Amino acid sequence: MKETAGTPVQVTGTVLTTRRVDAYHALTVVAPGIAERFRPGHFVSVAVGGPHTSMPARRAFSVHDVKPDYGGTVELVFAVRGRGTAWLAERKARDTLDLVGPLGRPFPVPRDPCTCVLVGGEYGSASLFALADTLQQRGCRVDFVLGAASADRVFGALRARRMGETITLTTEDGSLGLRGLVTDALPSVIADARADVVYACGPMSMLRGVTAVAVEFDIPVQVSVEEAMACGYGVCMTCVLPVIGDDGVTRMARSCVDGPVFRGERVRFEDVGTIPFDALGAPGGRVQEGGAHSRNVS
Amino acid sequence: MSVDMRTYLAHVELANPITTAAGCAASGAELSQFFELARLGAVVTRSITMAPRAGRPTPRMAETPSGLLNGVGLQGPGVEAFLERELPRLVDRGARAVVSIAGGSVAEYTALARRLSDAPGVAAVEVNLSCPNVEDLGRVFARDPAASAEVVSSVRATLRYDLPVVAKLAPDVADIVAVARSCVDGGADALAMINTPLGMSIDVDTMRPALAAGTGGLSGPAIRPLAVRCLWQVHAALPGVPIVGMGGVASGRDALEMILAGACVVAVGTALFHDPYACLRILRELEELLKERGFERLADAVGLAHRPPGAGPRHRTDLEETSL
Q1: A84 labeled part of a ligand binding site
Q2: pLDDT tens, A163-198?
Q3: Taking the model in full, what pTM does it have?
Q4: Domains of chain A, start order
C-alpha cells in the first residue's frame, strides 16, 4: 500500500451515478486502483469524446469524494466550459471513462492537531472535503469559507455546515451569505478561529487574495491551483506557472507534477501568465540562446 | 510465430520501432512511473539547449480539431543539468536515449554536440532544425537547405563517429526533398520527420489568439496526412536513408501507414498526452497487424507502399478498411 500510494494508474472506470448540483455536474465513477491510492488534493485526468474523438487533450478534474464502495469510487465535480466538459456532462450510468490518477502532489497535512481554515471558490471547494475528513481524523478543527459569484455557484455549503466548526459563505451578488469575496470574510474567520493554517482551492485571483491575507496573519497557506493541462502527468509542459523554489530561484513549475498544491507565498501570482525576467532561463540577456523568438518547437 | 520487430536507426539497433517524439515525453522519467522505459525502441528527449530556458508564457496549448497547438518554447534545464540529472536517470532505467538538441546558431549546435560526444548512454543525437537562426534574422534553419546542411555537417564533424546524427525536418518548406537531400549530403545518418507545422487558433470569446505566443506548432492526428506525404516523397527520392516517421500516430494502423510510406522507426508524440501507455499499445497493435499480413520481419514492410500495384509479395486479401 505504501509504495503504491500516489503512483498513478490508468483505468477504465464505469459511471455509477450522475447528478446536477446547482450550476455544476457531479459524476461518481467506479475506478478501482485510483480510489485506494488517493490522497486529498490529488486530481484525475479523463479522456473525453469517446474512442474516435477529435479532442486529443485530456481534461483534469479535482476529486470531490472517494469511497471504498463498489471496489472504490471517485466523484468529480465540474462546470461545463467547452466541448469536452459538455461531453462528460452527458455521460450516463454504466458508461465507461478512461481515467488516469491519482495525479499531482496532495495537500500536506499537519502532524499535530491544529486549527485549519479551508477556503473554496466556485467548484474549487469540491477538493476540500476529502481534506477536511483527513484533518478531522487527525483531531484538527476545520472552519470553512466558501464563495462564488452567486448562490447557485457556491459548492458544498450543506456538507461544509455538517463538517465545519464554523462556515462562512460569500457571494458577489449577495444572493447567499455575505455580499463580497471570500477574502473580505477571511480575516475575521482566521482571527476568530485563531487559525494555524489556511488551505485554499479556487480561481487564481482568489488564491492570490487568500495568500495575501494568510501572509498578513503570518500563517502558512497551501493553495491548489487550476491551470489548463493537456496531459496531467508532466510531459506536455503546458501548465506552468512561476514558483519560487527553496533556493530562492523562480522556476516555471508544472502545476500537474510540481503541484497542483503549492505554498501560497511561493507562487508569483502577479506574474502568472508571464515569464518573469528573473526566472531561471528567462529570455533576454542571453542573446546566444535565441531569446523568446523560438517557434515551432516544443 | 512472433514478428521480428528489430529495426536500425542508422547502425544503432533498436529492439522495436516505437519511440517517443522529442518534446512529448519531457525527460522520460515522467512516463517511467507507468511502465519500463526499456520496453521502448528508444526515448527521444525534449530538445536540449546550452543554457536553461524558461520557455514561453501561458497559455501554451490550444486544442484544435484532431490536433493540439503548442507554444512551449523549449522549456528545459540546459545541457549541464540534463547531463547531470536527466540522462543518467534514463540510462539507469535501461532506456536507449536519443538526445534532441536545439540552438540558435551553428556554434551552439556544435557546442552541444561536443558536450554530448563524451556523455555515456547517448544512443543517437537528433538535430532539431526548427529553431530560429539568430544570425539570419530568426528564420528557422529547417527552411533553408544550406543552413540545415551547415548545422548537420558541423554536428556530424564534432560528434563521436559512432553516434548517428538524425536531422529533424519541418514540413513548412516548399521542397522537403531538397532539404532532406541537403542534410544527407551534410552527413545526416538518418532523417526524422515531421516537426510540427506552424498553426494558429483564435479564441472567438476573448477575441484574442488562443496561445500567448500567437502561433504554435500543430500536432496530433490532424497532421498525419501531411507527415505521410513528406515521408513518401523523401523515401522515394532517398530510398537508402533511414527515416523516423512521426506526426499524429495514435494507433498501430497509423504506425504501419508510416512504415509502408518509408519509415523504419515511428515516434509517438501527442498521443502520449492522451494515453501514457500509447507507445506500448501502438507497438502491440503494430506487431499484430504485421502478423495478420504475414510479415515475419518489420523490415520487410518498410517502404512497401512504394512498390507498383500487384508486385506486393503478400496476399492482400480480406484486409480491413484502410486507416485513411
Answers
A1: yes
A2: 999 999 999 998 998 999 999 999 999 999 999 999
A3: 0.89
A4: 9-103 (2.40.30.10), 115-224 (3.40.50.80), 232-287 (no CATH)
